[in-house]
Amino acid sequence: MTPDLMEDGERRARAHREHKLKGRTHSGGRAAGFGRPVTAGEVDVAHGRILYLEDVSVSFDGFKAINGLSLDIAPGELRCIIGPNGAGKTTLMDIITGKTRPDAGTVFFGSTIDLLRYTEPEIAQLGIGRKFQKPTVFERLTVFENLELALKTDKGVKPSMFFRLDSGQGDRLAQMLHTIQLAEAVRRPAGTLSHGQKQWLEIGMLLMQDPKLLLLDEPVAGMTDEETARTAELFLQLKGKHSLMVVEHDMSFIQSISEIVTVLSEGSVLAQGTLAQVQNDERVIEVYLGR
Ligand SMILES: Nc1ncnc2c1ncn2[C@@H]1O[C@H](COP(=O)(O)OP(=O)(O)OP(=O)(O)O)[C@@H](O)[C@H]1O
Ligand SMILES: [Mg+2]
User: Fold this and answer.
1) What is the pTM assigned to this prediction?
2) What domains, with CATH codes, occur in the chain?
């Protein structure tokens, strides 16, 4: 090999190394958010939105379950979603969490993360937690063990058979028991809890992963009045620290927690405003609330 060629090769290798280095340090831009796992800490809310959907549609066998839906949520907001059966509320959550792919539209988490490029588990890792209607806790494990398990699957913690809580994690777990009002039930198997307590435990498990956005589908269905009131307190405590999207049919619950209420009907936004505003909207009365 001639010295010239060697020099040329070295020059190219150097350029390649520098280019790679540059690429690595260039992580704040919009393009960098695409196509690679992004940690929850990187969600860019500079534009005042944690979630942004525009003109989203999805059809099932020709039936438009979501039809040109646009919606956005501010960081720390507690947004309530109401609407008749079949309006598309659960389908909306399916789309945000990657369970269902829309046929058209835009779905962004912060201003840089295009959620349509990520799979369901990746979206969970990005910091979007979801609570389905039915409680899904490990019935044979204690309240403590359920929360501990949620910590183990935390992205920041290395999975290990010999997992031990460090003191910071222990503190977080104790704080969580207090937040979800299960401190007294800490050693009880989850299977012996009331329906409401199981729901709180599952919410606690989701919170152990510190989601930026938490989607809750009919969280107070089947709860006693007292459990419903406690759940309202819990959600009011969570707002600000997390962004919440809550779907519910229980209007007195909505009344106790709501700021902005979005009414869905036939797959799109029918009305939006305070509960009083949407309750007085003729179209909302017509399709949902009745006279
Ligand atoms: N995977 C699916 N396949 C076919 N149809 C579906 C699917 N998911 C939802 N749908 C249909 O889309 C429409 C919207 O359903 P969705 O469950 O989102 O309504 P909802 O607003 O959550 O209602 P509810 O208040 O009863 O929970 C319904 O007509 C439903 O049957
Ligand atoms: Mg539903």
Assistant:
1) 0.83
2) 38-289 (3.40.50.300)
